[in-house]
Amino acid sequence: MERQFARPAFTDGQLEIRIDKVEASIYGRPAGLLALANISDELAASALGCDRAAHVYLEDHTLLTRGVVSAAVPVFEAPQ
What we know:
Layout: E1 15-19, E2 24-28, H1 30-47, E3 54-57, E4 72-75
Antiparallel strand pairs: 1-2, 3-4
């Protein structure tokens, strides 16, 4: 029996991350996805020339809806 899709409410955040057995899904309002893109862009720029991994936690940016999993976005330099 398949579960019915539950649309995110977005009453208290701009992004919702869901994880099931085979995939992780990011649901977002346009403003939330733009914020995620900007955070990722800033993270990548700050990591250039850095020899260690950099990361951000999305919950620090008040984007996530309540009750969802926490999310970290790490960036690593390619091995040379």
